[in-house]
Structures are given as C-alpha cells and as structure tokens.
Amino acid sequence: MKVFVAGGAGYIGSHTVYELIRAGHEVVVYDNLSTGRANAVHPSARFYEGDILDKTRIAEVLEVERATGPVEVAMHFAAKLIVSESVAQPLAYYHNNVEGVRQMLAALVESGVNNMVFSSTAAVYGEPPKGECFEDDYTLPINPYGETKLASERMIKWVSEAHGLNFCIFRYFNVAGADATLEIGLDKDQLTWLVPLIMQTALGQRDKLQIFGDDYPTPDGTCIRDYVHVTDLAKAHVQGAEYLAQEKNSLLLNLGSGKGYSVNEVVNAALELFPFAYEYAPRRPGDPAKLIANIQQAREQLGWQPYLGLKEILQSDYSYRKSLIIPSLLHSRESQDL
Ligand code: UDP
After folding, report:
1. Which residues contact 127 (CB under 8 A, 6 or more apart)?
2. Alpha helices by DSSP H, the chain
3. pLDDT of residue 334
4. 3-state class of 254 per DSSP?
5. In ligand 1, which atom is closest to the CA atom of 284?
6. What is the pLDDT of residues 276-295, one digit of tens each?
7. For ligand 1, atom 12, which residue shows the shortest CA distance?
8. 127 in Cβ contact with 139 (< 8 Å)
9. Closest listed residue to residue 17, CA positions, set 50, 59, 45
10. Nearest CA to ligand 1 atom 4
11. Distance from the CA of 90 to the center of ligand 1, in angstroms?
12. Beta bridge partner(s), residue 60
C-alpha cells in the first residue's frame, strides 16, 4: 500500500520509513527538513519538501501521488518534542504541534485519505500515581509538549467522528537505539534524554553524565522509565498502517517495552558495554519517579510486541553515534539486506 509519512526524515519517522519499505510498502516522505535530514530518507521513498503547516502543499502532494495510486494511510511524525523547550516556548509548540495536525487533517479530509497513524506520548499521562500507565488512565499533562499531543489526540477523535477518519494513536515511552544498518539513528546534540547523553559522554563529547536525583521512592532511588527500541516502535507503525487498511477501525495504544529500568540500571548496563564517567546531581524539576507502559492492548489489538532489549538499544545507539565520528564503521549500502 502507499503510505504518506509527514516527518519521515526525522528520527522515528525515518526508522518507520525503513520498516515500511522492508515490509514491501510504497512510501511518500513529506518533511520540511527543519530537524530531519535529507540523507535519512530511504532511497526508495519519494521525497517532497514541505511544511506540516502548509495544507495546500500537503493536498497538492496527495493529488500528485494519486496519479500512481492513492495514499491509503497517512502518518504524522512532524512535531517538536523537547519538553524543556516546550516550557520555554509554549506558543511555538501549540503552533507547530496542534495547528500542524489541524492542517494535515484538513488536507486528508479534503483529499479523501481516511486512515491516520499519529505519534503521541506518555507525557499525556503527566505524573500517574501508580507509575504503570494504561490507555484509559486519566490524562493530565504537566508540560506544553504533553498538552499539545493530548489536544491533537482529541482533535483527531473529533475529526474521526465527523468525517469517518480511522486513526491509530501511539503513545510512546522512552524511545532510543538505531537501525541495525547504522544508516539512520538519533544524532542531535541539543537533547535532554538519558540515552543520547550517555553516548555523548562515552564518546568524549561531554565530561560526565549527571544522574538527576537518587532520593526518589524507587528501589535504588533513581527514576524508573520504560525504554523501547526505535526499530520495535517503527514496526508497530507498519502493523498500525496495515490494521487501518484492513480493519477500518481505530486504536489508541501505549508503545513501550512494558519493563522498567532505573537510571542506575541503564547506566550500569551501558558501563558493561563502554566506559564513561558519571556523578549524582539534584533532581531535575518535573521528572516523575516511575513511568512504565502497560502494553497488553498493543499485544492483543495489534499483535505487536517488542523484541529488542536494553542492551540492543544501548549497543546500537552507541555504534551509530560512533559511526558518525568514524564513518568507515558504516555498513556500505550495497552489503545490506533490505
Ligand atoms: N536523566 C538523568 N540524566 C540525564 C538525562 C536524564 O539522570 O542527563 C534521567 C531523568 O531524570 C529521567 C530519566 O533519566 O529520570 C529519563 O529521562 P529522559 O530525559 O531520557 O526522558 P523522560 O522520561 O524525561 O522523557
């Protein structure tokens, strides 16, 4: 089937494009390259440069594509996603993330594309008292990023009712890792996430990793999170697109590993693979003690399950970042089995 991927040059978008192509689908990537990279777009995908806020351009691309067969499913990855940045620039986040979804939905309705896969986040849950998150839990985001994703989820549901759109909304937990080919991965520097910061420290781009807080109500005092490999996550999107095309029904699912690791456990797992320095530092404001996905619904409704664990996440992320410094580590395109 033909799939339109807005934000297909970004981190999760590019991995999803790779998995869609591996599964035999035809992919149209739409991206403004503001944070994505042209060389992250799979060579077999058709690329159109354009902004998520530009409804006319999206509709134009869908129309051009119609000549070779209509787009069956559209995916939306084109969002800003740094929590601290969203706190500093809430208006920019509402503009890009909420208005961007509105523009894309308007183009889809106008063009008759009625299946949408949408990237949401565990941040919609805020600080759940139990730590384990279920899809029907109360949602109460504690930052603008989570608010913009929740507002988008709700907009999609209303548009679904009004215009017969089927949706698959995925709430991601802590995504990390890189594709096995090492052609794509997460290579941004201005991030606040634990796994990339471990990699930067291990590769000499930072002096020390700081562990934020060791006095949380968890067994070792550090925060617990659910880390899921980007390749497992990308495969869920392929299954989501196939589900929408076949079942003509909607889904809202958590995507995580279903397992929790403390910051100490992640650091120790990484230290088994490569050395780096770390120290304990005060708590970071706004960090809940524990966030773990309950993934029973994803297993039952989508038949999805994660296969790659923390070790594969850390190893692939490290190898990818290292390959950026030492490009000869990169597998040659010819030798891949895609
Ligand atoms: N963390 C840390 N040091 C860092 C970055 C993150 O100790 O340099 C901790 C953070 O406090 C949280 C966990 O690692 O408990 C995961 O944070 P991240 O920013 O990766 O994702 P979040 O769960 O906040 O979205």
Report:
1. 140, 142, 288
2. 11-22, 55-66, 83-88, 90-93, 100-111, 144-163, 194-202, 230-247, 263-271, 296-297, 310-325
3. 35
4. strand
5. 11
6. 999 999 999 888 899 999 99
7. 223
8. no
9. 45
10. 194
11. 21
12. none
Q: What is the pLDDT of residue 332?
A: 41
Q: Which residues contact 260 (CB under 8 A, 6 or more apart)?
A: 131, 224, 225, 226, 290, 291, 292
- Asked if residues 75 and 13 have their Cβ atoms less than 8 Å apart, the reply is yes
Q: Which amino acid is at 222?
A: T
**Residue from 11, 145, 172, 320 carrying the catalytic annotation:** 145
- 192 pocket-lining for ligand 1 (C-beta < 6 Å): yes
pTM value is 0.95
Amino acid in the structure at residue 219: P
Active site includes 320?
Answer: no
Atom 6, ligand 1: residue with shortest CA distance = 194
pLDDT of 84-115, one tens digit each? 899 999 999 999 999 999 999 999 999 999 99
Residue 52 near ligand 1, beta carbon < 6 Å: no
Output the CA–CA distances (angstroms, integers) from residue 224 to 129, 194, 221, 333, 335, in the order listed.
13, 12, 9, 38, 39
